[in-house]
Design brief:
Elements lengths: L2 H12 L12 E10 L2 E15 L6 E8 L2 E8 L5 E8 L30
Antiparallel strand pairs: 1-2, 1-5, 2-3, 3-4
Family: Belongs to the bacterial ribosomal protein bL19 family.
GO molecular function, one term: structural constituent of ribosome
Protein name: Large ribosomal subunit protein bL19
Length: 120
């Protein structure tokens, strides 16, 4: 076996199979495992997916939310062991691949129409 085949087989073992279909514009709730002392707990992080990058084991999503009037963005590696679960709460109707323009908007201007032709 070549080195690339060995790497591909190791990566295939690490891929998660229970991930939902995630599109840009969706509102998602990501359960993140947080270590406190010796225990782990799952903390939900809810927001709008404003970007997706890469593919396979390196696939990431950028999730944005507004917390106490400040926009907070987090990048999640989808196949990371720190991600416990991902739930799609609503589908967004958008016309572009990256929603970086939401960074400049405030309040009701950040709303995204709901899309009903894709199931949750």
């Amino acid at each position: 076996m070549s080195a690339q085949e060995i790497i591909a087989s190791i990566e295939a073992e690490q891929l998660k199979s229970n991930l939902p279909l995630i599109y840009v514009g969706d509102t998602v709730r990501v359960g993140v495992k947080i270590k406190e002392g010796e225990k782990y707990r799952v903390q939900p992080y809810e927001g709008v997916v404003i970007g997706k990058r890469n593919g396979g084991i390196n696939e990431t999503i950028t999730v944005r939310r507004v917390f106490q009037g400040v926009g907070v963005e987090r990048v999640f590696l989808l196949h990371s062991p720190r991600i416990d679960n991902i739930k799609v709460l609503r589908r967004g109707k958008v016309r572009r691949a990256k929603l970086y323009y939401l960074r400049d908007r405030v309040g009701k201007a950040t709303r995204i129409k709901q899309r009903f032709d894709r199931s949750l």
